[in-house]
Specification:
The protein is of the alpha+beta class. The protein is about 30% helix and about 25% strand. It binds zinc ion. The site of zinc ion (ZN) has 5 residues, from loops. Pfam families: PP2C_2.
């Protein structure tokens, strides 16, 4: 099985990047820190970057070991991250920092994915056919109050009542049962040409700016993942009214693509994953 990956990541202007990605032998993941609300500690003494780093490390460790379901890997990674916090952090605080995430794992038979929160997985099946997997529960909360602060967003008091609950939405962080609520699926390996994983900083091309996923895949294929990040920044700069959206004007942007070589190539090229370094 020969898989080639490309990746690019860029923080929102003048901010600390809270996205992460990792790629291993037959898998890739993207995480997007679900950060603090202004004035809220979330009960945790750690920076959000520490939390996403711990989650990424534990997920990578689980993905490197065969035989577990993606949900189990996520559950174990959340539990291990919780154990890392230590006694000074109150993990019962509903605003405890966490992350949204997307994971793809590929073996000889299938392409599997897991999505939790607003990261996305897009499966390119060639020609006109592609399928996107986005957990948009956070966008469909009934009567969710939006507050007009520096960033237009849900009120923290409201989020505290719906975060990591069956009526609300789930993130990776301090609730191991979030794993059971992730969106998971699989397709036969031979039906997939490539898979794209991204944070919501990139999926806003489709959600805000009218792109189709086919257009996103084609630009990434033609000009590489950095071109997608440039397209995001261009669309954001040209947005006449960014306050119409819930969320930041600019966000951290991360995109990873996994190209699956066809069977003929596979026989010639061997079994190892290869990659290019991420470009900033
Ligand atoms: Zn902590």
């Amino acid at each position: 099985m020969h898989i080639t990956y490309t990746a690019a990541m860029q923080a929102a202007p003048d901010t600390t990047n809270e996205d992460r990605f990792a790629v291993g032998d037959g898998w890739a993941l993207v995480l997007d820190g679900a950060g603090r609300y202004p004035g809220e500690s979330g009960g945790c003494i750690h920076p959000i970057t520490w939390v996403v780093d711990r989650l990424a490390a534990h997920l990578a460790s689980g993905l490197g070991r065969p035989g577990q379901t993606l949900k189990t890997i996520v559950r174990v990674a959340i539990e291990a991250t919780m154990a890392d916090h230590g006694p000074l952090c109150d993990l019962d605080d509903p605003l405890s920092p966490g992350a949204t995430g997307a994971i793809v794992r590929i073996d000889h038979d299938q392409v599997e994915w897991l999505v939790l929160g607003d990261c996305a997985v897009v499966i390119d099946q060639g020609a006109e056919h592609c399928a996107s997997v986005i957990d948009d529960r956070v966008d469909h909360l009934p009567d969710a109050p939006v507050v007009e602060g520096r960033v237009r967003t849900y009120s923290p008091a409201y989020v505290a009542t719906v975060r990591n609950t069956p009526e609300g939405f789930w993130v990776l962080g301090a609730a191991p049962e979030a794993a059971d609520h992730a969106l998971v699926g699989a397709l036969p390996r031979e039906s997939v040409d490539q898979v794209l994983l991204c944070s919501d900083g990139v999926s806003r091309l489709t959600e805000r700016y009218g792109w189709t996923w086919r257009e996103v895949l084609d630009l990434g294929t033609a000009n590489g993942p950095s071109a997608l990040i440039r397209a995001v920044r261009e669309a954001e700069r040209g947005d006449p009214d960014p306050r119409r959206w819930r969320g930041k004007r600019h966000d951290d942007t991360t995109v990873v693509t996994l190209q699956l070589a066809d069977q003929a190539e596979e026989r010639q090229m061997g079994m190892k994953i290869t990659g290019r370094s991420p470009s900033p």
